Amino acid sequence: MSQLFTMTEEDSPSLSSTDYDQLTGKEEKLQDTVFGKAKRLAVLDKTEWAFLVLSTVSILAVGTMTIYKIVEAARDIPSSESEEDRLRDLFFAITLFVNLGFLMFYAWHGVIREREFELWAFIAAVIIIGAYIFWNFFITKKTIIKIVRLSVFGVGAIPIVILAYVVSKEFRWLEFRIVGADPILQKMFRSYSRCTTLILFDLQIAASLLIFVYHPLLNALLAEKILLPILVLLTLIMAIDVFIGIVTETRWMIWAWGIFALLEPIYIALKCVHLGFEWNSGIDHMLAGVVYAIAAVAIIVRGALAYYVDRCYQNFTYGLKDRAFPT
């Protein structure tokens, strides 16, 4: 996972001025969106459409079954499952549904905006969701819904991941259209793209952690139940803050995020210590293990995000804002 988020710039070669002749005449392929310049759906190639169709169908199929499971578990419909399994299923399904939403965004936004790193985040999210699905299937009572959900994931995951990788390697001309042939600006723009992807991934992990910590079998403290939603809300606010700060090159907004960025690792460290003290007090060891795993991923992602925020900060005043984010 750490290698995924510390990819060097050399891994993604810059477009040179010799590519210009191949890219002229393609302005009609672009459209302005609320997110910036993007490719029109009509000009996506067959590989991109194959990826989008397969990933969308798979996400919707798994999402439909997940919604059914949420309703079933929340309404406490009589079944042969134990109360512990019902609670596990409910919290797992909510977490899965949230992650599927991020997955859909990574797929579509990553393709039409040619965000290579978002497709890498898509692959990482598929692995995380796969871990959730396998974990839920093997530690709780097996039902038809779980078998079908596991089967859909098993059939679709490998080709989707392969297509995501192939599609990501075909990106470059939209970047050229935005920042031109200057290799320095191209590298700065890729740092920005990776940073914005990590902002989303950081928010995704924080939301997952919030849901699992609320599980009654983990003996969360009352103060924790009150403060954690506030922490996640602040994560959302500061995600917006750091995004605006990078785009507008506003230094105080980056400093504000830097101070806030320390809060989540502090909370995670305290939570892990608390789970250690509660280990012999009746908590669900499987769920505690999941929280430890999410905590580890959260620390890695927050560290990678801090690195790329600093990279973007160091690039202020060097011309990226005027070329990529004109006002």
Protein model, in words:
The protein is mainly alpha-helical and 327 residues long. It folds into two domains: 10-16 and 181-327; 25-175, Four Helix Bundle (Hemerythrin (Met), subunit A) (Up-down Bundle). 74% of the residues lie in helices and 2% in strands. It contains 13 helices and two strands, in the order ααββααααααααααα. The chain has helices spanning 2-5, 20-23, 46-74, 83-112, 116-139, 144-168, 173-179, 183-213, 222-248, 251-260, 263-277, 285-314, 320-324; strands spanning 30-33, 36-39. It has a two-stranded antiparallel sheet with strand order 1-2. Strand 1 and strand 2 form a beta hairpin. Helix 4 (83-112) packs antiparallel against helix 5. The longest helix has 31 residues, at 183-213. The two termini are 36 Å apart. Residues 1-27 have low confidence and may be disordered.
- Reading the helices and strands in chain order gives HHEEHHHHHHHHHHH
Number of strands: 2
Gyration radius from CA atoms, angstroms: 21 Å
| Share of residues in strands | under 5%
How many helices? The count is: 13
Return the structural class: mainly alpha
- Gap from first CA to last CA: 36 Å
Shape: flat
User: Which regions have little confidence, pLDDT < 50, spanning 5+ residues?
Assistant: 1-27
Number of domains: 2
Largest sheet, order of strands side by side? Answer: 1-2
Mean pLDDT: 78
Helix content: over 70%
Report on the biggest sheet: 2 strands, antiparallel
